[in-house]
Amino acid sequence: MRTIKIIDDITKDGAVTFGAGYDFVEDAEGADAILMRSTDLHGYVLPDSIRAIARCGAGVNNIPVEEYARRGVVVFNSPGANSNAVKEIVLAMMVLSSRGVVQSMEWCRAHAELPNPLTEAERAKKQFVGHELKGKRVGVVGLGNVGSKVANACVDLGMDVFGYDPFISVEHAWVLSREVQRVGTLEDLCRDCDYLTLHVPSKADTVGMISTDQLALLAPGAVLINYARETIIDEEAVAAALESGRLSWFACDFPTPATLHMPRTFVTTHSGAGTDEAEANCADMAISELKDYLENGNIANSVNYPSCSMGKARAASRVACLHANVPNMIGQITAILARDNANVQRMVNESAGANAYTMFDTDEHLEPATIEALRRIPSIYRVRVIK
After folding, report:
1. Which terminus of the chain, N or C, has fewer Cβ atoms within 10 Å?
2. Domains in the chain, CATH or no CATH each
3. 173-203 pLDDT, tens per residue?
């Protein structure tokens, strides 16, 4: 029986199902894996028994992923599972920032006691006249799970769509509309845009990427939308652009002390992916990832180890080694297996940055002494006997 520790409310109704062979525990001590959402695990006392952590969501800023990698703990996320929810709220913010919808509703509430509010509304409506999205230029920064969907939706709305992503994957390039015009630099993307929407993770090369120089290239009165990460904008530069009128509106999902005091800003409660469907999709993906890793050793959508799969474990034994990406690791592993006369059916090795993963099937169960010898190899973080 494998045991799972659940942290956070994973779904709205609290229903989480792993199926037969799994049980949920109150204490992480002794558990095999953790399923979680938003709790900050920096400083969390992680038991040695934990082999994997799956986050129901894409961002993993709340998890010390490299520290866990060196402990042989695979960290999964669920990229793309909530992308439709984020796409929809980004489109909603584009409309709200263009049509004076919120301001118009506020006027109606403020004048509810007028004797003839409908007549007065007819007189007042001219101050809320906006403009349509059709024909406007929009720049999409990042063409991954969310950005590609936003770009395609903007094409469907009749907008002039430009995209910037120097690291676009083949998968996302295939689904991108041919009407999306890709540009080579962020500056070229920003130039004369009526809307700029951001869809990149927070990394060393994206922190503060939207600042004074980029905002100055936008069309006068442009709209900036950030439903990615709060750190990718320079808040002082955005505030100054709003004050000067360079930006007409700013919409974001991050209620920081700065954004909450900016003029003409829509700020939501970090709820861009907050739909029942997105929560369920993220949970399903995270659970599937954990089960495949615990049962078969396969890795998909990990943020600290490479993707690796040998299908369902069917041989007498399957062993996985989590280790540093250093020279001669395969040689050391195979030398021990050869010394102990282990017959390897097949073996796979993958690496990602500083970390690597080696998995192999054997015709017979390995002796405990062989497993212990593998664990003593320098730079081996963990050895798992899966079957």
Report:
1. N
2. 1-82+273-305 (3.40.50.720), 83-267 (3.40.50.720), 306-387 (3.30.70.260)
3. 999 999 999 999 999 999 999 999 999 988 8
